Amino acid sequence: MRSGVLPLRERGLHKAARQCKAFLASITQGDKVNPVERFNDATNRRDINDLRAALHPDFEMIVPQKPRRGFKGVEQEIKNMEYMFETHPDLQIEVLRMAENGDEIWTENHLTADGIEMAAVVIFGIDRETDTIRWGRYFSDAVTYEGPGADEWLEALHEEP
User: 141 pLDDT band (50/70/90 cuts)?
Assistant: First the structure.
């Protein structure tokens, strides 16, 4: 071993290397990648056809904290994504965490593009018959590095608008 160079195991990278190897093996062995992974991959490649293929025709987006932003229909999601691709060609979604249980897939995402940084948690409902995303519950906010701390934020909750 060269001086100052640690083996992967000691640098904490062995787990990531094993996960990457397992993922690549699953693809080459024909295991299906879930529709949320396909959606995110299609987004990062700006592939509208693959994005559409990951969505159920009756797709519904639910935005609990801003109900008027919710919609029904795959065409609105396609329109939204086409707009994002046109206005932010460097758009990237990084999945920080993903958990799958039954017909639900939960993700924590970090979205970046020139002029945008968003953090989101999305709960997806999967239609197992069509292997598509049937609905999503979208919780997101812009990432900001300035602004009030925890105490100031709590105090502001009780201020008059």
Answer: very high
